[in-house]
Structures are given as structure tokens and as C-alpha cells.
Specification:
Length: 166
């Protein structure tokens, strides 16, 4: 983890709040509530995404992948070294690989994923010898809100399943 200055932390909180709104929209649509936003150093939103696996019937339709694809189209470049990706949940191996391949300058995420986290929790793709890019990582931004959103969504899904609802 990287120690950050207080004003930078306020910016991270602002963008993570936006990612949480995107995650809520995904959850409301029946998706696991994960949201992602990519911003430049001047505070401009470049791209955003939310989980769409169920809606798109696409196993790669994770919030991070959608945001990265959108950013590369907007910028007409696959190199995103000057940009920061904000995501509510620690990226999985697929997304971590895409983040490294896109050469993102920084990743800021909300809550650790103890099952598939591939940034720091289960495995560490960015710092592995397989990575040809060093990624600045900040974790734990609005961690409680990100965790609560996921826990509430999964509890609701379990309750609906128990009561025969979809």
C-alpha cells in the first residue's frame, strides 16, 4: 500500500463515491455491485463501467474491463499510464492482468477481495515477475461503504433465493 497526502485522499474519496454509484446501478440491475471510473490528473472523468456479466452474457464484462475499453477508445490509445482507475472491489486476476497490460498509472480500490483479489489479497499480479509494469496501488478507500454495499447485496440475494424469488 502507498501512503498518500490528505488532499489526494479527498480526491480518491470523491472518485470512489462515483464508483459506488455505478456499483449501485449494477446491483439494481441484478449484477454483483462493482463500479469503476478512470480519471485523469486534472480531475476529469475519462471512462466508467459497472459489472455487466449477466446483462451482456459475457464473462469478461467486469466493471474494470468495461472502463478500460471505454478509456482506450476515448483516448485512442491502449496506454493509460497517466490515468487512475477507481474500483469498489479489489480486481480479480483477469482485471489485474488488463490493468497491467493497459499500463495504468494508479489503481485505487475500496475493499479487499478475499476470494479472488489479485492485487494484494490472494495473489499479487502487479508486483510479480510476470508483470512488465509497476503499478501504484492505494487500497481501502471508502472501504466500509464498499464492503457494506457488497454484503447487503449478497444478503438480499440469499434471502430472495431462500424465499423462492429471483
Amino acid at each position: 500500500m502507498v501512503l498518500i497526502e490528505y488532499p489526494e485522499y479527498l480526491i480518491h474519496r470523491q472518485w470512489m463515491s462515483h464508483a459506488l454509484e455505478l456499483a449501485k446501478a449494477a446491483g439494481d440491475a441484478g449484477e454483483v455491485p462493482v463500479g469503476a471510473a478512470i480519471a485523469d490528473s486534472r480531475g476529469n472523468l475519462i471512462a466508467e463501467g459497472e459489472n455487466r456479466k449477466e446483462r451482456d452474457k459475457d464473462p469478461t464484462a467486469h466493471a474494470e474491463i468495461i472502463a478500460i475499453r471505454s478509456a482506450t477508445k476515448t483516448l485512442d490509445s491502449w496506454r493509460l499510464h497517466e490515468y487512475t482507475l477507481y474500483v469498489t472491489l479489489e480486481p480479480c486476476p483477469m482485471c489485474a492482468g488488463a490493468i497491467v497490460q493497459a499500463r495504468l498509472g494508479m489503481l485505487v480500490y475500496g475493499v479487499d477481495d478475499t476470494k479472488t483479489g489479485a492485487i494484494r489479497t490472494v495473489i499479487n499480479i502487479p508486483d510479480s515477475s510476470a508483470s512488465n509494469h509497476r503499478l501504484r496501488v492505494v487500497g481501502g478507500v471508502l472501504e466500509s461503504a464498499c464492503r457494506q454495499q457488497l454484503q447487503t447485496w449478497f444478503a438480499t440475494k440469499r434471502h430472495q433465493k431462500t424465499n423462492g424469488q429471483r
